[in-house]
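Chapter summary example.
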Amino acid sequence: MKTTIDWILRLVPAIILLQTLFFKYTGAEESIYIFKQMGIEPWGRYLVATLELICAVLLLIPRTAGVGALLTLAIMLGAIGGHLTKLGIEVAGDGGFLFTLAIIVTVFSAIVAWKRKTQLMVMMLKRKI
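The structure predicted for these 129 residues follows.
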């Protein structure tokens, strides 16, 4: 049961992150709109997509899930900040769907990071960060 919960906590945000890559990399209208509103289109869209791809891979590997969760948290806090400042909760009539996904990914990633806090501390101490 514990392993199943751990997989769910890592798989859900990874799937959400991976699913959005197609739209960012192919220049879907909604993605372009979002990143134009943020003033970072197109380079920001490609950078965020690449970072989200890295996060998803790190989350899926048990040994790197903690680092992936921390990186995901950083990116999602940026996304939530963008929604609360420039974009709004609802973007292009989506009913708050993207904002909700960002919240879900943030919560799941925070739980993964918390569950792996010892692993993360050991990694930081080994690298003297």
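To summarize the output: The mean pLDDT is 92.
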